[in-house]
Amino acid sequence: MEFCCKREIEGKLAHDYLTSSVKNHYGNMTSSPRRVFVSTGPVIVGAGPSGLATAACLKEKGIASVLLERSNCIASLWQLKTYDRLHLHLPKQFCELPIVPFPADFPTYPTKQQFIEYLEDYARRFDIKPEFGQTVESAEFDENLGMWCVTSVGEDGTTTEYVCRWLVAATGENAEPVVPRFEGMEKFMATGEVKHTSHYKTGGDFAGKRVLVVGCGNSGMEVCLDLCNFGAQPSLVVRDAVHVLPREMLGTSTFGLSMLLLKWLPIRLVDRFLLVVSRFILGDTTKLGLNRPRLGPLQLKNLSGKTPVLDVGTLAKIKTGDIKVCSGIRRLKRHEVEFDNGKTERFDAIILATGYKSNVPSWLKENKMFSKKDGFPIQDFPGGWRGECGLYAVGFTKRGIFGASIDAKRIAQDIWEDDQKHRYVINTTLRN
Ligand SMILES: Cc1cc2nc3c(=O)[nH]c(=O)nc-3n(C[C@H](O)[C@H](O)[C@H](O)COP(=O)(O)OP(=O)(O)OC[C@H]3O[C@@H](n4cnc5c(N)ncnc54)[C@H](O)[C@@H]3O)c2cc1C
């Protein structure tokens, strides 16, 4: 019966904003109003590919959702924080959202612009209209109400509280940039530029400059190549061991081939195969200063989530000496960088290709599903998508858009089943 009342309130208030005044901690009424919105459907936080995929799968099942996005566009990572030359790292068939394949005339590795176009068409097709400029600052399950209370702040400072039965975290693995601190950073910044890759657009901004790129993942490697192509002189800091694989082998994508081989062979053998063919195509990367980890590329990915670098031409530039490989950074000085091996070199700019982190612990007040340490679900793939009390996670599998699509379908099905169960309970209660 208690549930029925809740549902009744829900039904009445769905899509209605209630404006209420709020008392500040001195007990006075504050001037800024607080809006309360009770949603009959789930609230999804984040309108990147994962949030869009979940909203679309729910729509297909007749469930409307509320999609909250802090920026002013969908897929803000792709639209606002990536460099111009970016293409999908993986072939398009592994980066599709559920239900809608990529257009047949798109290339195997669509450009960033084509990917954004695909996502915008996707949102239009399912009539997904996110609430833009809404930064979710907290979400907590109210035991008394049996609902999630999600608080977001709009660009004008207005606070809105969304009350819902289901909450989907879709804020992504790349919500905030990781910016390491180096000794002497301020001294270098007085004479040169330091920027994270989320602010890097094109090598054209660095023509003729000596640029140090920190981090040798896919982004760091590609930024080096971009800098080279625009006449800059890039150096790459390689501190850790890294697996570099050719993007294609034996006439097909390395990723696709790996997936296929994994169906028949144990992961250890597939790794061995990848390393032998890579050695044949790329040569011995150790000689270039790129040591390989002890574990094979797929085993390492499974265990730590560390993605192998798929080479798009950077290695050739390292071989010709157009890109220099450096050891770790000891400290920064005015105009200069001192490396762990004691050498000092002059640079005009530093690009930090040091990755991103999840921001879930900053807004989700919950202790069981997400790790406070790294903001990822504690349970590994494929189990981390569902928590308790109607809490879900999409896009935290370290398996890119492919993993997000699997999550989205599961979440929509689960919410649909839950909704059906509750409708049955309501109908039975009303009949009796
Ligand atoms: C350079 C680069 C290239 C990549 N290439 C590929 C590739 O080729 N293939 C692949 O599968 N994957 C790739 N990835 C991984 C990629 O990040 C994901 O596949 C995809 O963008 C993840 O989508 P998402 O929706 O989970 O996260 P995001 O795209 O990060 O979207 C999350 C959204 O949540 C919003 N948000 C965050 N916090 C809040 C908050 N508190 N309140 C409201 N909104 C919030 C953000 O603004 C953002 O719009 C790449 C990543 C990078 C950085």
UniProtKB/TrEMBL annotation:
Alphabetical list of InterPro entries matching this protein: Auxin_biosynth/cation_transpt, FAD/NAD-bd_sf, Flavin_mOase-like, NAD(P)-bd_dom_sf
Broad class of enzyme this protein falls into: oxidoreductase
GO biological process terms, semicolon-separated: auxin biosynthetic process
Organism the protein comes from: Arabis alpina
Metabolic or biological pathway, per its Swiss-Prot or TrEMBL entry: Plant hormone metabolism; auxin biosynthesis
GO MF: flavin adenine dinucleotide binding; indole-3-pyruvate monooxygenase activity; N,N-dimethylaniline monooxygenase activity; NADP binding
Cofactor: FAD
EC number, as in UniProt: 1.-.-.-
Top-level division of the source organism's lineage: Eukaryota
Protein family: Belongs to the FMO family.
Entries under Pfam families matching the protein: FMO-like
PANTHER family from the UniProt entry: FLAVIN-BINDING MONOOXYGENASE-LIKE PROTEIN (AFU_ORTHOLOGUE AFUA_4G09220), INDOLE-3-PYRUVATE MONOOXYGENASE YUCCA6
Keyword Flavoprotein: yes
Catalysed conversion reaction: indole-3-pyruvate + NADPH + O2 + H(+) = (indol-3-yl)acetate + CO2 + NADP(+) + H2O
Flavoprotein listed as a keyword: yes
Assigned keywords, A-Z: Auxin biosynthesis, FAD, Flavoprotein, Monooxygenase, NADP, Oxidoreductase
Descriptive protein name: Flavin-containing monooxygenase
